[in-house]
Design goal:
The chain is of the alpha+beta class and 736 residues long. Helices cover 20% and strands 33% of the residues. The chain is built from 14 helices and 44 strands. The strands form 11 sheets. An 8-stranded parallel barrel has the order 27-28-29-30-31-32-33-34. A 6-stranded antiparallel beta sheet has the order 3-2-4-10-7-8, with no helix packed on it. Strand 43 and strand 44 form a beta hairpin. Helix 1 runs parallel beside helix 2 and helix 7 runs parallel beside helix 8. The protein is globular, with a radius of gyration of 28 Å. The N and C termini lie far apart (82 Å).
Length: 736
């Protein structure tokens, strides 16, 4: 019988001739991968472990199973290289049987170095190096379910439904000899499979029919059938494996969105990166569970598992909790002509290892891969992947998440079965309302195309606060306003099959240096350490969750300079009553968002009450702005309802920072200045992700109507910096 041994203890880690004892999971970038672009180590390290030959019977085989090693590695036994794996997010195994001695040493040489073969190489997240998921030793008999094909378990379950009848096809792959293979499904029965050959491989196939099956029905009833596969050699049980599957149907309609089991089921979701503060991607099961609990507590019913294959345990949690999941490979940002084979192998691993998960509805081919344009090789790579998905799994769909700068008439948009766009109007460029227009235009021009919203978001650092939040200020208040608008926008358009907020959690992006907190992407609704739910989290809870609650926004905006301040509450209840210092001020009826105006002249206790739900906070009237609440001096202007002196005195005949981009670009001298500035800003945007981008016509029109001042602020540049002062002086000499 199979013996699976957790193999996480007793490892020695070596980096640049320094050695230390470690326990797996482990990453060497737990700290430097989160502190900014200068200290991020991408190189080669070694993991070593001493072990004695395990006790094995004649004919048994010994495998080492690695659940995740980022991003490339070689496995050596007693100094001999026996296996290599390229791809940092999937399971792989190596058969070490023939290399074992009485005493042994395994060495795993791990690299997260830049290269031109293995994805990802350029993306807005940290590529943590290390053996960051569990390691197992697996001992099996000569006759065993397959362990050698792309990290799968050798068992593939394919349910289908017709009316009240379910048909469940079973296929197993095995090595060695098998006299019979028995399948048992709890509550259904058992059946012996038919053994044969397929392309030279040993397989066994069969099927079950289930009348009136209990469906996997999302959050409401995520029912899973338990299945056991037993391999017999003679009369002896040689191997046994277990799995679960769900029976469900799903479909997409270009007018009415997503359907689960024949009923409309709008996917209201979040995207998730796996890492967290001080730990990187070396997570425990408890951390995965905490992430899932936080997502469920907000009322989400779907997760985009970006931008790579996630831990099997998290896919298991999606199955158990009824979460509809989007799965993808890390084919991202910049296409590499030399990386095609790696995209194919990573897709094969993703599908093979996750085939039986009821939660997964699609296999995503890539994310924002067109940053630097669409080439013939890129198109061919996607056609190959699209065909591979349909060949390996006809029961699910292919998908893509498109960069918001990809023209909607590109052939890449129509290639997969479904697609989403990553839109950031109202943050990186344009206004929130541009998201509405984009979807209305797309749906009018492509009425038969299924479309979703696969990313949208705005950064916030929780200490940054303002009485007048605005785009680009990184305040908690603007992020909340942005998501208020986006939820309204999504709700009004039923044809959007799914939406995925970017991101549920803050995550490490080593190339970023923004808002005084480098090394992070701050778009999370929850902080990197999972300890603080931002105000924006609660607007989602107000829309999506049935759990009664009321939440006061602006708790971290304690010191307030204004004499009359806005108090805002989020709730899924119909009415909210506000109390100030114990005195009832006003009761309001609304949906989701409740706003009040309150005069302040000292320190006040604010309470919001709705039935049995209540929340409270304290605010104080101050004379001077709290400097901790804003990034730089130009951000304090919105604390006062005044304009800078130089703005009131500017000459309307000449260009200035308040001129629109269209006005400036209409003058050759102005256009030359702007072209140079945009090149610099793009190279710095999102940790360098904007370098070399091509801006489509629709976005150019949006940019054209923006004042240059707003664009500069949004790009993270300070208005009082020498560079901007010089720019302002140069513009002031150019007539409109």
């Amino acid at each position: 019988m199979r013996n699976t041994i957790l193999w996480n203890d007793g490892w020695k880690f070596e980096k640049e001739n320094i050695s230390e004892a470690v326990t797996i999971p482990h990453t060497w970038n737990a700290v430097d991968g989160q502190t900014g672009p200068e200290q991020y180590y991408r190189g080669i390290c070694h993991y070593k472990k001493q072990f004695n030959r395990p006790t094995m019977e004649d004919g048994q085989r010994c495998y080492l199973e690695f659940r995740g090693v980022n991003s490339s590695c070689e496995v050596h036994i007693n100094g001999k290289a026996i296996a290599r794996h390229d791809g940092g997010y999937s399971t792989f195994r190596c058969d070490v049987t023939d290399f074992l001695q009485r005493s042994n040493e395994v060495t795993v040489i791990v690299s997260n170095e830049p290269n031109e073969v293995v994805y990802p190489q350029r993306a807005d997240f940290t590529f943590y190096g290390g053996i960051y998921r569990d390691v197992y030793m697996v001992i099996v008999n000569k006759g065993h379910f397959d362990l050698d094909y792309y990290g799968g378990n050798g068992l593939y379950v394919t349910p289908s439904i017709e009316g009240n009848h379910a048909h469940v096809d079973i296929k197993t792959y095995f090595a060695g000899n098998a006299d019979r293979i028995l399948i048992s499904i709890d509550g259904v029965g058992e059946k012996e499979l038919e053994i044969s050959k397929e392309d030279g491989k040993n397989i066994a196939t069969g099927s079950f029919d289930i009348e009136n099956p209990r469906l996997w029905n999302g959050i409401a009833d995520p029912y899973l059938y338990r299945i056991t596969a037993t391999l017999f050699t003679g009369e002896e049980v040689s191997d046994r494996i277990y799995d679960r599957f769900g029976i469900r149907t799903f479909s997409f309609d270009p007018e009415n969105g997503f359907f689960l089991n024949g009923k409309s089921y709008p996917l209201r979701g979040v995207s998730r990166h796996q890492d967290r503060a001080g730990i990187g991607n070396a997570l425990t099961k408890e951390m995965h569970e905490e992430d899932m609990d936080l997502i469920l507590s907000m009322g989400a019913n779907s997760i985009r598992l970006a931008h790579y294959q996630h831990d099997q345990y998290f896919y298991d949690l999606c199955d158990e909790k009824g979460i509809v999941a989007w799965a993808e490979i890390p084919y991202i940002t910049v296409h590499m002509d030399s990386g095609r084979d790696n995209t194919i192998s990573q897709m094969k691993e993703l599908i093979t290892q996750n085939y039986n998960h009821a939660s997964i509805i699609c296999w995503a081919l890539s994310n924002e891969i067109t940053l630097q344009g669409v080439t013939d090789d890129l198109m061919e790579n996607h056609r190959i992947l699209n065909d591979l998905v349909h060949e390996m799994d006809p029961g699910r769909v292919s998908a893509m998440a498109n960069l918001f700068m990809l023209e909607t008439d590109s052939p890449l948009v129509q290639l997969p079965d479904i697609r989403g766009y990553n839109l950031y109007y109202g943050w990186y460029v344009g206004d929130m309302e541009d998201n509405d227009k984009w979807f209305d235009d797309f749906h009018r021009e492509h009425p038969d195309t299924v479309i979703g919203l696969t990313e949208y978001g705005a950064d916030s650092v929780i200490k940054l606060q303002s009485p007048k939040p605005e785009k680009g200020d990184f305040t908690e208040g603007y992020q909340a306003l942005y998501h208020e608008h986006m939820l309204e926008m999504i709700n009004k358009r039923p044809y959007i099959w799914g939406s995925y907020c970017w991101n549920m959690f803050e995550f490490a992006a080593a190339g970023r240096d923004e808002a005084g907190d480098p090394g992070k992407n701050h778009k999370g609704l929850v902080t990197f350490d999972r300890k603080i739910k931002k105000d924006a989290y609660y607007i989602y809870k107000a829309w999506w969750s049935d759990e009664p609650f009321v939440h006061l926004c602006g708790k971290r905006y304690h010191d307030r300079i204004e004499e009359e301040t806005e108090i805002k509450a989020y709730s899924n209840q119909g009415t909210v009553t506000l109390f100030v210092d114990g005195e009832e001020i006003e009761t309001k009826t609304a949906e989701h968002v409740f706003t009040f105006r309150v005069n302040i002249n000292g320190t006040h206790k604010i309470e919001a009450v709705s039935g049995d739900c209540r929340d409270e906070m304290e605010i104080t009237k101050v004379s001077d702005p709290n400097p901790d609440y804003f990034i730089s001096k130009d951000k304090v202007h919105n604390w006062f309802d005044v304009q800078a002196e130089d703005e009131s005195a500017e000459d309307n005949e000449y260009l200035s920072l308040n001129s629109t981009m269209a006005e400036i670009q209409a003058v050759p001298e102005g256009k030359a200045i702007i072209d140079n500035m945009m090149a610099v800003m793009n190279s710095k945007a999102a940790g360098g992700m904007g370098e070399g981008v091509k801006i489509p016509k629709a976005m150019q029109a949006i940019i054209a109507r923006q004042p240059l001042k707003k664009l500069i602020q949004q790009g993270g540049m300070k208005l009082d910096s020498p560079e901007i002062r010089n720019l302002e002086m140069a513009l002031s000499k150019i007539k409109k």
